[in-house]
Amino acid sequence: TQLLEQSPQFLSIQEGENLTVYCNSSSVFSSLQWYRQEPGEGPVLLVTVVTGGEVKKLKRLTFQFGDARKDSSLHITAAQPGDTGLYLCAGAQTDSWGKLQFGAGTQVVVTP
Amino acid sequence: ETGVTQSPTHLIKTRGQQVTLRCSSQSGHNTVSWYQQALGQGPQFIFQYYREEENGRGNFPPRFSGLQFPNYSSELNVNALELDDSALYLCASSSPDRPYEQYFGPGTRLTVT
To answer: B90 and A96 in contact by Cβ < 8 A?
Structure first.
């Protein structure tokens, strides 16, 4: 059972469109990470958010941590084929900082 | 800066056998975590090693064990392999001041037949 629920499970869009991926939980997390994973490879860290309400922007990617630190979102503006991949959210709780709990992931496909 | 490396890349074993997977942490990182990722799922935490000792364990049976060496590299050992152990095994390293910010290696794909 995944503590973090991601939605949607799959997203297929055209190049230039925007997309949002959601990560929700009933539990509070002290930090939340977003990763992108390519087939057969390890996840690559995109961002870490630690403060409720925090918003971080990395070029065309915007990450938000919910005020209650139970949810997060990833928004991609003007998606490109290179954004294709499995997006994973992972949270750490205060009593177990080193144990990341992952969502099942959202598979994003951006077609030219 | 050297990233996390893992070996071997792929491995095929028979049910009941034992396997050892290896990981070298990113330079400057002294904490190593291991995860199992089954097909279509997110990674599941197996355990973490810090200062050569196990520092947290997920819901995995004792036949999953590990070691960390003085150079911070690590091994994951799995005894009595089962078919359900087939998965991508991921190693991640982190620094002690930010243990939640973990950097992953490319993984070892284990197939148990």
So the answer is: no
B43/A33 CB distance under 8 A: no
Residue indicated by tokens 């070892």: B108
B1: confidence class by pLDDT, cuts 50, 70, 90? low
Helix (H, G, I), strand (E, B) or coil at B14: coil
Tokens encoding A82: 């290179």
Q: Is the dihedral of CA A106, A109, B3, B4 positive or negative?
A: positive
- Mean pLDDT (chain B, rounded): 95
Mark the ranges of chain A whose per-residue pLDDT is less than 50: none
Distance (Å) from the alpha carbon of B66 to chain A's nearest alpha carbon: 16
Angle subtended at Cα A89 by Cα A27 and Cα A22, rounded to the nearest 5 degrees: 80
Please indicate whether, in this complex, the C-beta atoms of A31 and B100 are within 8 angstroms of each other: yes
pLDDT-derived band of residue B113, with 50, 70 and 90 as boundaries? Answer: very high
Closest partner CB to B100 (pick from A88, A100, A104): A100
